[in-house]
Design brief:
By secondary structure, the chain is of the alpha/beta class. Helix content is 32%, strand content 12%. It contains 26 helices and 23 strands. Strands 2-1-3-4-7-8-12-11-10-9 form a 10-stranded mixed sheet, sandwiched between helices. The chain has a 3-stranded parallel sheet with strand order 19-20-21. Helix 11 runs antiparallel to helix 23. The longest helix has 17 residues.
Amino acid sequence: MHSAVSIQPKPLNQYPMYWAECFGIASFLPTTREEMEILGWDSCDIIIVTGDAYVDHPSFGMAIIGRLLEAQGFRVGIIDQPQWQSSKPFKILGRPNLFFGVTAGNMDSMINRYTADRKIRSDDAYTPGDIGGKRPDRCSIVYSQRCREAYRDVPVVIGGIEASLRRIAHYDYWQDKVRRSILADAKADLLLFGNAERAIVEVAHRLSLGEDISTINDIRGTAFFIDEIPDHWQVVDSTNVDKPGRLEKRINPYEYSQNEVCDKKESDTPKKSVTVSFSDKRQRVQEKLKGRMNAVIRMPSFNDVSRDPVLYAHANRVLHLETNPGNARPLVQNQGGQKIWFNPPPIPLTTEEMDYIFGLEYARVPHPKYHGSRIPAYEMIRFSVNIMRGCFGGCTFCSITEHEGRIIQNRSEDSIIREIEEMRDKVPGFTGVVSDLGGPTANMYRIACKSRQIESACRRPSCVYPKICENLNTDHSALISLYKRARNIKGVKKVLIASGLRYDLAVESPEYVEELVTHHVGGYLKIAPEHTESGPLSKMMKPGMGSYNRFKELFEKFSEKAGKKQYLIPYFIAAHPGTTEEDMMNLAIWLKANGFKADQVQNFYPSPMATATAMYHTGKNPLKKVSKESEAVETAKGDRQRRLHKAFLRYHDPDNWPMIREALQKLGREDLIGNTRAHLVPAEQPGLRVGCKSPRRKNGNTNKRSKSLKGKILTQHLGLPPRAKR
């Protein structure tokens, strides 16, 4: 059966072209038979089924995968947001010659459809007209089943973020239970996780050469069914926290870091008795890594993790320790009679490959069939440029790491500049303002480990928590150079930075902060401390407020130097695992002391497979070794408790005062209840005498005074204009 996957992938642009390249490049990938006929096609080689509207822009997954496969010579069709009640809409383009590629779109379909309070959204930013309900719940499953009904013999390959985050047995917040892998529910042939360009190109070419999809099992970033683990694999049993099987010593990535990173001369090092040289240690580590490539980890089964929260937390910890492409081992998990094999994550794309992908022939606009209907997700990124992928922050509530990985994949400066110029010349409505140069994190461009050897051996979940790793190169000079060059492009008036900023990283480069604040802030800069208290911050893997304060000082200093009035807008999360009511109270006190009145706030949203979601479900901390006696994590779960945590963030809203007063009394903090500026909430509702009936609701209508207060903007206390509202 299958052998170990290669760590030296074939470059994306070195595959032989498929014969259908003779048809050339389509202005838009076809979505109907009529469009296929115009292109001269009698059939599609690959059909992509997506839950999003078809926007031919490199910020949309279906466009990237479609254009990449087209560049390999394949004929690619798009079925976007089909009616899923029958298989008929899935036959609109005919039978694909090679396979169906199914994706929920740029978001998990459940997160897209429901709020953090499990309420159905009426809108959908990825649908023309912002109309909700155009895709089914867990749409990767439904679409896959309809594809199978349409053409039973055609392989079905699922991918995208929904497949990535649900690839293994996972806690489902909406059903409040553990579900099995989406591969099992979808009954697909192959699952691709992470950024799947390498995998999808390899699969397409191998299928085109006549290989059966059941034999394609040596590609990184793929998951598939197996009957039994092959004999030549060494099995590491991790199915039980009490009997974990053979435990190997954790590889120390810093064993030879002094020699590798600092490059000390022999004369600089004090002479002492040494029995093992740095080169010997390096060889030992490399041999150990090589040995890991022949080992597979047996995970706790779906049945076990669905019954035992401790085993679920343990499995989550094992999964996240095996995410570095340089040392990750395959995983196998029994899914109630079926075994699923998970190959190691994909090797990150090189700069040349990133340039190749983003340099493809995108129209950069929605398909004409929408007749100009507004697609909010497109409007948001219409004039933005993605400069990199990945994030090494490791925030436990975030799904970027599980999908894109911790190693930053960068585009070249020339490629980014070309895209800005193309956007200027091709995209309707461009006014000279680039809305964002960013990615998952705005200021991680070209930042990486100082040593490839250390990076390939490291298993840390974050490069910046609890502090910035000494082996991380924090030089922002490449990003500063890019910003300067971008803002000097002819026809560009302003280049804004809207992506999330890692401020603890930014303070390592005051020159970067000065460039950012002086030229790339449109009056308000949003950053995300997420909390002020050490308890929840430790469960988020976020820095303390000291980093925020240092960044704030630099922000204000350079704003004043530039002669600009600019403001920081901080984001915070309520009800995150590890957060107590006292933590939320202290956060509310901080907000009031600093004059912030948040108009829109977010409760913690347990997304599939995230570490914080494991904390929410199990009450255990997977950041440490998990056992029945290991650290417990306090979590707000009930609707009332989650509402209270959210209410503390909106301490200024009269509707929340009764709930906050009750909580303060239970906490023994009646000193925060009163009618002066020093108090958190007043002793009485507005306009009431003691004993009066609350006017909050009257005949089903909200009290006018209360309603007017609810609309106050984020920093009204500071006298900012309405633009500060978020």
